[in-house]
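*** Backbone structure tokens ***
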Amino acid sequence: MTVCSTTSRGSADVSLFFDWGVDMFHTLLLVDAALSKVRQTLPTTAVITTNRLTFATFPILGYSLTSDRLSQTQLWGIATYQLKPPLNRVTGVSTITVQGGKVPEFISSRTWRVCRPLVLQSSIWRTRYKPPTFIDSPGLYEANHQLILGLVGAQAHNGDQLGRLVVKTTAGGVPVRVADVATVQPGVLPVYTTVTANGKSAVLLNVARQPANNTVAVADAVVFRPGAHPTPISSRQNY
């Protein structure tokens, strides 16, 4: 067996190469068992994902979306919310990944759009504050012979709701809100991957097949989805 690793800031990829003829399904179980023993020694925020590498891991099709009218943020929304869900339901499709574009955001635990530097430095704000946005369960509720799971949500969905989030409470019991110390503005996540098609900025949808399915059959099913889209999706789709 050969072990290779690639480490970058915030992530590490470890590749295991086994001899020909090894039962990879059984080997994957052994690898998962070994990882479970060391998982408790890792930071709680560490996420480990194991995959059996096959030719199906790589995309078989890629569709690019370009537009002379819509922004990269709007194209990302079309790819993520309009095209990706129906493509995921096509028989034989494993995963659909979206690359490129600009992901919209108001705020996150790491990135804040702060416009009052004299009041609060944005670098300190990003480092020390984590917004109290969550979905949690207070417990179970029994009624009419049914057991119902209760959920409590404290998520913000727009700039005004983000501005009303409480940062802290003073000694006198007065809540200090985000809008009191900062201005929340629409923005986009940092762009690390740029996709172009025919010389224009684009959003790319990568289609990967399931290992047991035929590549040609899956490609045909994705391009010609009866009843799901009036016309085939192609790299020349105009928006």
Observations:
- Residues 1-53 form one domain.
- The first helix runs from residue 24 to 38.
